[in-house]
Write a structure and sequence with these properties.
Layout: H1 2-38, H2 73-81, H3 83-89, H4 92-120, E1 139-140, H5 145-156, E2 165-166, H6 171-199, E3 209-211, E4 215-220, E5 223-232, E6 238-252, E7 258-265, E8 276-277, E9 283-288, H7 300-305, E10 309-318, E11 324-332, E12 336-338, E13 340-342, E14 346-349, E15 352-355, E16 363-365, H8 373-379
Parallel strand pairs: 4-12
Antiparallel strand pairs: 1-2, 3-5, 4-5, 5-9, 6-7, 6-8, 6-10, 10-11, 13-16, 14-15
Helix pairs in contact: 3-6, 4-5, 4-6
């Protein structure tokens, strides 16, 4: 009897353990499934050192484009409601195809209407001429679709070769002529406006605003600092230039809620005004790692294990046009180097300063403790 009771207890314990393990596996699999979509796809069951770290999916590409795909039918309908912005945001190939297709469809449609007017009136005769002694044509020398199409093109482009002309004997032709002029002006203004806005977009100016390939962590004035470099390749300035930085990482609340892509501000000087840049020469942007910093408790070993992304946004006004320009980039945790500094790029020459952009991304290693800023402050009596 005792043996049977013991077996029953052991069986119940195994079932409870199995049930608990099943629940944990479901929670873990759901969390891992979401994390794989946003880039934080490390399996919690993987043994240490048995597999290599999988590449993290970026929230933002290095060129500043957000790695997001919007999947919803409602979004497409909203895009059509704001057709002007949709056309401006389209690629050049799609824009030119839409431009050509729109004009061909408009010309073909109105040319067809002119041909229908000629068909409904006794303009088209068997001898392909609409000139008779007893009839005045609505449009002279329009006797086929091709001639109607040519008449529309000659009128729309103000060519006027002189052979085809509208007369005052058909009210429907006069009304169509007025509507053609109005619609043609609206279409020209719309399409030319789209092309002009696309050519003059300020994001092209962002191509000459560069960021360093890596972030570095090194000491400055006995404090840990996270640093990256920004530069302006043109001589023209970016007016009212400001810089911001975001720390993006998934987190789980105390109640168990999982928040993907949680964003946290990184202080790059907005409390002291250091985020307002005079970007004439390349500048090193510094984030002091203090108690409010997300890197305060992060050591060198923790940095290798962590998965996060730093979003950098540089914004200002183009000096020549007054338009707002924005340049963006991002740094993964693997692109943040511990114990490194940037090579100097600004040198004093005879009568001027010289910027050596060939060393813009260059870094060198420095001596630095591997412990976190929190541990460093505890171990250093001067803090």
């Amino acid at each position: 009897m005792t043996t049977r009771r013991t077996s029953v207890v052991q069986m119940s314990a195994k079932l409870a353990a199995l049930r608990g393990e099943t629940v944990r596996e479901e929670v873990r699999s759901n969390s891992d499934l979401w994390k794989s979509d946003v880039g934080n796809n490390h399996s919690s069951r993987r043994s240490k050192g048995s597999e290599k770290k999988k590449p993290t999916t970026r929230f933002m590409q290095k060129n500043g484009r957000c790695n997001i795909r919007q999947d919803a039918a409602e979004i497409r309908r909203r895009y059509l409601r704001d057709i002007f912005t949709t056309l401006v945001d389209m690629s050049w190939r799609s824009n030119l195809l839409f431009f050509i297709a729109t004009y061909i469809c408009a010309w073909s449609s109105i040319g067809l209407i002119w041909w229908i007017i000629a068909l409904l009136s006794p303009d088209i005769l068997n001898n392909t001429s609409n000139v008779t002694s007893n009839h005045t044509a609505c449009v002279q020398n329009v006797y086929s679709y091709s001639t109607a199409f040519l008449f529309f093109i000659e009128t729309e482009t103000s060519v006027g070769y002189g052979k085809r002309a509208i007369t005052a004997h058909c009210p429907e032709a006069i009304i169509l002529f007025v509507m053609q002029c109005l619609l043609g002006s609206i279409l020209d203004a719309f399409m030319v406006g789209c092309i002009f806005i696309k050519i003059s977009q300020p994001k092209n100016r962002a191509e000459t605003l560069v960021f360093s390939e890596h972030c570095v962590i090194s000491p400055r004035d006995r404090k840990y600092c996270l640093m990256f470099r920004v530069g302006n390749l043109r001589n023209s300035l970016i007016v009212q230039c400001r810089i911001r930085a975001k720390y993006v990482k998934s987190r789980q609340t105390q109640e168990g809620e999982f928040i993907g892509l949680h964003q946290e501000d990184i202080n790059v000087g907005f409390d002291t005004g250091a985020d307002n840049l005079f970007l004439v020469t390349p500048l090193i942007i510094c984030h002091e790692i203090d108690e409010k910093s997300p890197f305060y408790e992060m050591s060198m070993e923790d940095l290798k294990k962590e998965e996060f992304e730093i979003i950098v946004i540089l914004e200002g006004m183009i000096e020549s046009t007054g338009m707002i320009c924005q340049a963006r980039t991002s740094y993964l945790s693997t692109e943040v180097l511990w114990g490194h500094r940037f090579m100097p790029v600004l040198f004093h020459a005879r009568g001027h300063f010289r910027v050596d952009h060939s060393e813009f991304h260059s870094i060198y290693e420095v001596t630095m403790p591997r412990i976190s800023m929190l541990e460093y402050q505890k171990s250093d009596p001067q803090h």
